[in-house]
Amino acid sequence: MSSPEQLVESIAQRAVDNGLRVVTAESLTSGSIAGRLGAGPDAADWFGGGVVAYQEPVKFNLLDVDEGPVVTRSCAEQMASGALRLFQADVAVSATGVGGPGPSEGKPAGTVFMTVMTSEKATTHELHLDGEPEEILAQTCDKAIEMLAELIC
After folding, report:
1. Which domain holds residue 43?
2. What is the CATH classification number for the domain harbouring 120?
3. Which positions of the chain have pLDDT values less than 70?
């Protein structure tokens, strides 16, 4: 299995080769996924940026997420769709969930919803991760990179 750094290199190469603009919409991860992608090779050529929508009004007002619970599959999908629209991008990855240490919206820490999306296809995963908050965030970022690589590589 490739490391997250190797996957970012593969994503970068594929994005450059195919003229793709990749973006993020993050809540739980507070921009960490964007940070990893932005550190990738030739990022200025393929990484369009990201939205950190940590507070609910940002999700609702900027990304057009439906008001209501935000630790949901539909929220992750709407965040990705909103990022595609805002950045006029080709590929988006989003993450929303509960980092912990306690529950939120009745869901235990480690509950994460992630979406990778193009204009033609969307894949969403529900994860149930274990560990301290920083471990959950790291695992979420790793999974986001894996999902993105699976989609475009």
Report:
1. 4-152
2. 3.90.950.20
3. none
